[in-house]
UniProtKB/TrEMBL annotation:
It catalyses: a myo-inositol phosphate + H2O = myo-inositol + phosphate. Its EC number is 3.1.3.25. This is inositol-phosphate phosphatase. The keyword Disulfide bond does not apply. Gene3D superfamilies: 3.40.190.80, Fructose-1,6-Bisphosphatase, subunit A, domain 1. Pfam families: Inositol_P. Keywords: Hydrolase, Magnesium, Metal-binding. The keyword Ribosomal protein does not apply. It comes from the Bacteria. InterPro entries: Inositol_monoP_metal-BS, Inositol_monophosphatase-like, Inositol_monophosphatase_CS.
Length: 263
């Protein structure tokens, strides 16, 4: 299968999975906790991941899958093709709001992002990118990002930033909140990355994200000129959890130098 067909195949799997997720609303959800009480997973997260794995394993037996729910492969290197999948990013939104959740998928080859997808299931918005080919919102090319000042920015952050943490001093956080035009929290890292890529947010930052939360978004972000690093301004390591910032280029520098404690 050539690379163009792989892109079409991935998009088709995503759309099929989304149809199943939407139709699940008529059935009763089975909700469980994972690492702690508020770390939720449902039968639909698990079934969606299994759906992808069943198809990918049958059609691409030598590709590996790194999925949040653990039905894929144990990944300790990025050799060959690796599909990084979050079957539902924003599970809490899925359960409580029935909207604002996404399927997030990155296809990597020898550690390089080849394709990235973020599908906002209820909005029916597919953000996609192919390495070196630009990024698209559905079939419309997304323009390159322009500059932004902190004063005119909307920054994606969640409430955990008000709890004392190692990345920011309380005073600096207050100053950032007072200086920025606004902050928003959408409860799905993938959607927040998609919002930066499409210029709705100017930056999004998180103290800890997993590879499947960000792998698809990183391919998209690169294609529109966004900068993605850890909060220590280091490259992301897709084999482990990282702190994370995606931002318009000049804003990335301003946010890290003025507000974040670089280690
Ligand atoms: C979570 C969401 C959330 C982010 C968490 C993630 P999940 O993913 O992206 O917005 O703050 O760190 O774990 O568990 O809903 O796939
Ligand atoms: Ca989860
Ligand atoms: Ca996630
Ligand atoms: Ca998830």
């Amino acid at each position: 299968m050539n690379i163009h067909m792989l892109d079409k195949y991935a998009k088709s799997l995503i759309k099929q999975a989304a149809i199943q997720i939407r139709s699940s609303f008529s059935e009763e959800l089975i909700i469980e906790s994972k690492s702690e009480a508020n770390d939720l997973v449902t039968n639909i997260d698990k079934e969606t991941e299994k759906f992808f794995i069943r198809h990918i394993k049958s059609d691409f037996p030598d590709h590996r899958i790194f999925g949040e729910e653990g039905f894929g492969d144990k990944i300790d290197n990025l050799d060959g093709y690796v599909w990084m999948l979050d079957p539902i990013d924003g599970t809490t939104n899925f359960i409580h709001f029935k909207k604002n959740f996404a399927i997030s998928l990155g296809i990597y080859k020898d550690g390089e992002g080849i394709f990235g997808y973020i599908y906002n299931v209820m909005d029916d918005d597919l953000i996609s990118a192919a390495q070196g080919q630009g990024a698209y919102l559905n079939d419309v090319r997304i323009p390159m990002l322009e500059k932004a000042s902190v004063e005119k920015s909307i920054i994606g952050v969640n409430a955990s930033w008000v709890i004392p943490n190692k990345f920011v001093q309380h005073d600096q956080m207050i100053e950032l909140m007072q200086t920025a035009r606004g902050t928003r929290s959408f409860g799905s890292a993938a959607i927040e990355i998609a919002y930066v890529a499409t210029g709705r947010l100017d930056a999004y930052m998180s103290m800890r994200l997993s590879p499947w939360d960000i792998a698809g978004g990183m391919v998209v972000a690169k294609e529109v000129g966004a900068i993605v690093t850890t909060l220590s301004n280091e490259p992301i390591n897709l084999l482990k959890q990282n702190s994370f910032i995606v931002s318009k280029p000049n804003l990335h520098e301003q946010l890290l130098s003025k507000y974040i404690i670089l280690k």
